[in-house]
Design a protein that fits this description.
Elements: H1 2-34, H2 37-47, H3 49-70, H4 73-98, H5 113-118, H6 122-146, H7 155-170, H8 181-188, H9 198-205, H10 207-213, H11 228-246, E1 258-264, E2 277-278, H12 284-292, E3 294-299, H13 307-316, H14 330-333, E4 351-355, H15 364-371, E5 376-378, H16 401-412, E6 419-424, E7 443-445, H17 452-476, E8 483-489, E9 510-517, H18 519-523, E10 537-538, H19 543-550, H20 557-568, E11 571-574, E12 582-585, E13 591-592, H21 599-616
Parallel strand pairs: 1-6, 1-8, 3-10, 4-5, 4-6
Antiparallel strand pairs: 2-7, 3-9, 8-9, 11-12, 12-13
Length: 628
């Protein structure tokens, strides 16, 4: 009798521990999103109690599911805590560096776990690994001690527990589909995935519910008036616009020229960042290049990450903010499923992509051939496709920008005629630990930085970029064929965590860009020195029309549409804070809302959405004719 009472007591303790663990993990997940205990307490215990209870219920079912799978309590405990410890740390790091939670689209990076770990502070990795080893060791010992006294389930109970755990996840598949049963129930419970941005959604609902709510991806909502006739009329409309534009542009074969897109990893002049001051200017040569050539600021849809999303916009001219919120990575969630998507590579007979890192990040090894790239050189490439130059600087583990530019110059010289080249650099990628000796840059005001020393390291790094970029352009000027470079930073580095994104949303999403035509291009009417119309601020989807204007190049109906969008509509991005889902910014870097647009701007924006929908998830009514 005493033994039975003892077992019952242990079983009750098990139940209590499982439920308590679910609430603790749910709390820590929310804290990893907010980073403030007071805010977490207010959300979970006052304003959003029901979503927290639902999160705890799901976590309880997942714990029981793992228990049913192993049929050993402490083994299940080890798996549960280790998994969610990694999840919590990953979410905290992503919020810190990118201001957004972990999402299903991030699971694609699991195949690059080793490379991802190299981007994280060694101290963080060491602490996490130590805690995991401690938890696993403790659970193994406890299982040996109490194994015979704890619950063991029969096969039917085990199957039920596993099915319940799977169902608790699967039921969320259609949670964001308006009218579905789960959507109605969760909406009544206080769940919402229709807040303006994904970070706000995760703060409101919690990271777990946000993750589950984004398992199913809706690419883009269908714009009103979409049909075959409407798209045929749009092609005709913008063919007329193209005819007008082309009257003043002499060059009608883009493939005769060389166009190079250079995505400079994490480049953004730190002198523009609030509450940050550095002892001297980090990139004086690039700032001078900007003064003398077509240039301005680029409105990024990312902060601290999201490189491939900016890359996608530059290649296609399509706006990331016009896609559904659940589409977090067009490369992995859209392009991998498309056949020959419309993009700038299509306009060239020769094309090459260069990225001095692993080729499977963001599924580039699949995406680039779909875009039409004939070669893709990366650090995994072998044989004839191997990178020619892979030098690094100091303790920086990434291939230097100087080496990347050498690879690009080598590619330029492989063809007598024109070609399209994409270079995505890596030198200035996180982490920004001590990488260089004799760093002359010191942070004199680091109030906006989590770790001011890292801002100084970053400044030194982009100073190397400054010198190598000038040298790259100088070498292009010696080549006797027309070459134009679109050079841009994709996002700010995730170094300014103490600056409120609410207060500095626009400025912390503005990077630098310039468009440079080499001496031969300018001398032979294939290039322009400095455009000033609608160049002060643009977005990545504006680079194609700006480049074609720079190159005196005639346009297709599609590029005529992009030209009008770039000239007439404020720069746009996916918003990360605030009450507006879309971030629109005027030429003075002031945020404006949709209601501030004129009727003609709204009509143009609707045309743009119709074409974007048609070319991505629609019926491809315009695909065969709009870019001819």
């Amino acid at each position: 009798m005493h033994k039975n009472k003892s077992n019952i007591f242990l079983h009750c303790l098990q139940i209590f521990f499982i439920i308590l663990s679910a609430f603790i993990v749910g709390y820590l997940l929310n804290y990893s999103q907010t980073g403030i205990f007071e805010m977490t307490n207010g959300i979970l215990f006052k304003t959003n109690v029901v979503p927290y209870l639902i999160t705890a219920l799901i976590l309880t079912l997942l714990y029981l599911g793992v228990y049913g799978l192993f049929n050993r309590f402490f083994y299940a405990t080890a798996v549960f805590y280790v998994f969610f410890a990694i999840y919590i740390v990953a979410n905290k790091l992503k919020v810190m560096y990118r201001s957004e939670p972990v999402l299903p689209s991030d699971l694609g990076f699991l195949s690059n776990a080793k490379e991802m770990l190299s981007m994280i502070s060694g101290k963080v990795v060491l602490i996490v690994v130590s805690v995991i080893l401690l938890v696993v060791t403790a659970c193994v010992i406890l299982e040996k001690i109490f194994s015979n006294k704890l619950w063991r389930f029969n096969i039917v109970t085990r199957v039920v527990l596993v099915v319940l755990a799977i169902s608790s996840i699967g039921v969320f598949y259609n949670v964001n589909k308006e009218g579905s049963t789960i959507n109605k129930l969760m909406t009544k419970a206080g769940y919402s995935n229709f807040t303006p941005n994904i970070s706000m959604t995760a703060t409101t609902n919690g990271p777990l519910l946000t993750f589950l709510g984004n398992m199913h991806v809706d690419i883009m909502d269908q714009p009103s008036g979409y049909n075959k006739t409407a798209m045929k009329n749009l092609v005709t409309k913008y063919q007329n616009v193209a005819d007008n534009i082309n009257q003043d542009r002499p060059n009608n074969n883009l493939s005769d020229q060389t166009l190079i897109f250079v995505l400079s990893e994490s480049f953004a002049d730190p002198s523009r960042v609030p509450n940050i001051k550095i002892s001297s200017e980090a990139a004086p040569k690039i700032m001078n290049i900007k003064k003398e050539n077509t240039s301005g600021l680029m409105l990024s849809s990312g902060y601290g990450g999201g490189t491939a999303n900016m890359e996608y916009m530059t290649f296609t001219g399509l706006a990331y903010n016009q896609f559904s919120k659940s589409l977090q990575s067009p490369y992995t969630q859209l392009v991998t499923k498309q056949d020959h998507p419309v993009n700038i590579v299509n306009s060239f007979k020769k094309s090459a992509a260069i990225h001095p890192f692993h080729g499977n990040f963001y599924d580039r090894q699949t995406v680039y051939p779909k875009f039409g790239f004939q070669s893709f050189r990366n650090i995994d490439s072998k044989g004839k496709l191997a990178l020619k130059y892979t030098d690094t600087i100091g303790n920086n583990p990434y291939v230097s920008d100087e080496a990347s530019y050498k690879n690009t110059l080598w590619q330029v010289n492989q063809n007598k005629g024109g070609q399209f080249i994409s270079l995505v650099t890596m030198q200035n990628h996180m982490p920004y630990n001590v990488m260089y000796d004799n760093n002359q840059f010191t942070v004199t005001n680091g109030k906006g930085a989590e770790i001011p020393l890292q801002v100084g390291n970053y400044a030194k790094s982009i100073n190397f970029t400054d010198n190598s970029t000038q040298d790259f352009l100088d070498k292009l000027d010696t080549i006797k064929k027309p070459i134009t470079v679109v050079w841009y930073g994709d996002h700010l580095p995730g170094l300014y965590a103490k600056n409120s994104m609410n207060d500095y949303n626009v400025i912390q999403h503005e990077t630098d860009y310039f468009i440079y035509s080499n001496k031969y291009a300018i001398d032979h009417n294939y290039g322009t020195k400095k455009l000033t119309d609608s160049t002060k601020i643009t977005d990545p989807n504006g680079f194609i029309p700006l480049a074609l204007k720079q190159m005196n190049q005639q346009v297709t109906p599609y590029y005529a549409l992009l030209t009008k969008v770039q000239e007439k509509i404020p720069a746009m991005a996916k918003n990360s804070v605030g009450e507006n889902e879309n971030l629109y910014v005027d030429s003075n870097s002031k945020q404006v809302s949709t209601k501030d647009l004129t009727e003609s701007q709204k009509k143009l924006l609707h045309d743009y959405k119709l074409v974007q929908y048609d070319l991505t998830v629609g019926k491809d009514y315009s695909k065969a004719t709009i870019n001819k």
